[in-house]
Amino acid sequence: MKDLKAWLGIGLTAAAIGAAVLAPWLVPHDPMQADFVQSLRPPGSPGHLLGTDQLGRDLLARVLYGARLALFIGVCTVLLTALFGGLLGLVAGFVERWPSAVLMRIADVQLSFPFILLAMTINAIVGLGLQNIILSLSAAGWVVYARVVRGEVLSVKQRDYVQAAAALGMSRSRLLFRHVLPNVAPSIIVVASLQFSSFIVAEAAISFLGFGIQPPTPAWGSMLSESRDFLYVAWWLAAFPGAALALTALGVNLLGDWLRDTLDPKLRV
Q1: What confidence score (pLDDT) does residue 269 get?
Q2: CB–CB of 230/40 below 8 Å?
Q3: Alpha carbon 44 to its chain's center
Q4: Burial of 48 by CB count in 10 Å (0-12 exposed, 13-18 middle, 19+ buried)?
Q5: Separation CA 52–CA 150 (nearest Å)
Q6: 36 vs 34: CA distance, rounded Å
Q7: Handedness of CA 76, 78, 81, 85 (dihedral sign)
Q8: How far apart (Å, rounded) are the C-alpha atoms in residues 188 and 200?
Q9: DSSP string, 215-268
Q10: pLDDT reported for residue 251
Q11: What is the pLDDT of residue 64?
């Protein structure tokens, strides 16, 4: 059963990445080119496998290019949060004393706010756009890495080989990056894989509410928002972007579960 879940996660994630990378070659249509003559064509129409939207734009092209945008945002946000949050967690766990206490109090305050609400609020303050939504998601998501990494560092630095290296006079920076960081890295990878889908869904939710990627740029959240007025006459406008979002999030979550089981020795049987 575990192998089935792992392969399903790998397959869905690989399909999403393949669709995003090969989008220009898979569809001949411009995802933002309107053709009012072809508006609201159902799936299976000649030249439009998934049909068209209310402006006559090819839905398959918009879904595939939406995958590009979603994965790009997910990758950039994960890298920023892992780097910033992981570094803060390393320092707080290794130094302890007042820096660790201050960081944890800040983390506690931030965790008291719902993640999507906090990201949406930050994005509304800094403004709309691709860069700003990445920054807002990163500002809302770093705390998870900081708390996890700090807890791992507090455990790792008590192990015998770390204590022995410190007793031999190894510098604190070398001790941190040579002995502590390699043992914490698996936890960072697991958190990143599990957070990736959360960032994709959060971006879609923010775009759906009008605070993220704006039309006519093809984003799954904004496509779902535009489809609300056509649910009874053009079900495919919501079905295909929603399915793409759900399957991508499912694939990444299953892949994250597999990585957790593989990298965490406590879960091995």
Answers
A1: 47
A2: yes
A3: 32
A4: buried
A5: 49
A6: 6
A7: negative
A8: 18
A9: TTS--HHHHHHHGGGGTTT-THHHHHHHHHHHHHHHHHHHHHHHHHHHH-GGG-
A10: 92
A11: 94
Backbone angles phi, psi at 52, to 5 degrees: -130, 165
Tokens of 108: 């506690």
Q: What is the reported pLDDT for 117?
A: 83
Q: What confidence score (pLDDT) does residue 14 get? A: 93
pTM (2 decimals)? 0.88
What integer pLDDT is reported at residue 1 of this predicted model?
A: 56
Residues of the chain with pLDDT below 50 are 267, 269
Q: List Cα–Cα distances, 36 to 39, 63, 187, 218, 230, in angstroms.
A: 5, 19, 51, 18, 16
Q: Please say whether the dihedral angle defined by the alpha carbons of residues 115, 118, 124 and 125, taken in this order, is positive or negative.
A: negative
Write the single-letter amino acid at 26.
L
Tens digit of each residue's pLDDT (9 = 90 or more) over 191-236: 888 889 899 999 999 999 888 888 888 999 999 999 988 988 999 9
C-alpha to C-alpha distance for 191 and 252, rounded to whole angstroms: 12
Task: Report cis status (omega within 30 of 0) of the bond before 31.
Answer: no
Q: What is the pLDDT of residue 193?
A: 84
| Six token digits for residue 15 | 């399909």
Rounded CA-CA distance 231/211 in Å is 22
Distance CA 241, CA 63 (A): 6
On the 0-12 / 13-18 / 19+ scale of CB atoms within 10 A, 265 is exposed
Q: Are 64 and 150 in contact (CB under 8 A)?
A: no
What is the set of domains in the chain, with CATH numbers? Answer: 2-28+54-267 (1.10.3720.10)
